[in-house]
């Protein structure tokens, strides 16, 4: 979007010099910063990781996300976005501060909020005027209250000098910038009129250009906003595990989960999304948020067994998939197998908690030689894959990976996989066996070419 477009004009016309600060420039922070810049706001970002901050300042996105690098270069050159030398400079320059730092799980499965606390303390030391601190990272219920307490105590200033609000993100990797600019909902958790007013003003350029934009806005108290986010991700995880359990039943009785999912999805009370059976959910959000939501429920004396079961079903996907490969190949030791797809989902280079990490490790343990290919995630996979390489070859293309392989495994449903020349693939493979962990290939077409096809829950 150029500055002459409606969103930019709408914000600029208000003639104010508000600068927005974004603290933490990871998947959430950088997208938020550039999304706000697209809306016409001036944004300053900061990240404690100096090397990452420098790369971003030089116009290089530190991860793959469609549209991000273009938007970054454009807004750097327009001056809509800049990178501050450090957190305190960004805090002092901005009036509204989005907290987008990491919230990893500790060993006990609880969220480690030390980065959030560190930001709150830095804000407290740099309160050079009113600040609205907006919690964007996914955090447990009542984190905003703690942020407020830390800022008040460390700064010694009254609440009138600052507000803390909650504005959870619902960005999906692979479509994050699009999601920012076309949100299903904008949830604002606020405790003061001033905070509500500022945030509504911030999002007005977006709400005005979306059809029925105002109906997408939900203004609630902070704890409710925190729960909307945590519950949403937990629900999505439960939904995926539900369809995976149904897939196993389908397999046992000879039904096709794809058709069952279609039948379920036509019911508007259920909906068609998140009913794709496969090797399970991964990524930095669903697994982590489900587990921390479980711990929160337990700590509050609430029976969180439903969530635990969803986690268990997801964990069991890896072994179920390995067994499927074993059934297809009988003896695994000494076999050569191609793997297409390492990212936890298409459209990203992210492999955090990706099913591929565990499946590849298990197959190596079984003595299988693996030829891996992913259009984006090979570098990240190498970085995250703790196990010694063993019989592991990274290939330069999908076709290269299948050369001499006795089976082809699909772990991520990248669109380019569907478009391969499967006659050529069949010629190159030592055995025409496909185990499609995402049910993304055309089963009939492959069978017509002489492939033996194994899907997930497709009896
Ligand atoms: C998720 C949520 O969808 C976003 O709304 C949220 O903002 C984000 O987490 C976050 O908390 O930051 P994301 O992790 O990018 O987004 O990925 P999803 O699209 O939710 O997919 C998660 C996993 O579930 C992937 O591994 C995907 O392959 C798997 N999945 C998804 C299935 O196995 N089946 C499905 O039907 C859908």
- Sheet bearing the most strands, described? 6 strands, parallel
Ligands in the model, by name, code or SMILES, are: uridine-5'-diphosphate-glucuronic acid
Uncertain regions spanning at least 5 consecutive residues: 1-15
Proportion of beta-strand residues: 5-15%
Structural class, from helix and strand content? alpha/beta
Radius of gyration: 24 Å
Mean pLDDT: 94
Helicity range = 40-55%
Distance between the termini: 48 Å
Strand order of the largest sheet: 3-2-1-4-5-6
Notes on the protein architecture:
By secondary structure, this protein is α/β, with parallel strands linked by helices. The protein is 47% helix and 13% strand. The chain has helices at 6-13, 27-38, 50-57, 68-78, 87-93, 114-125, 143-155, 176-181, 193-209, 222-253, 257-265, 286-299, 305-329, 355-365, 378-384, 398-402, 415-418, 422-428, 443-448, and strands at residues 19-23, 42-46, 81-83, 96-99, 131-135, 162-166, 186-189, 217-220, 336-340, 369-373, 392-394, 407-410, 433-436, 452-454. The strands form three sheets. A six-stranded parallel sheet has the order 3-2-1-4-5-6, sandwiched between helices. The chain has a six-stranded parallel sheet with strand order 11-10-9-12-13-14. The chain has a two-stranded parallel sheet with strand order 7-8. The protein is globular and about 70 Å long. It starts with 5 loop residues before the first helix and ends in a 5-residue tail after the last strand. 45% of the residues are buried. Mean pLDDT is 94; it is low at 1-15. Bound molecules: uridine-5'-diphosphate-glucuronic acid.
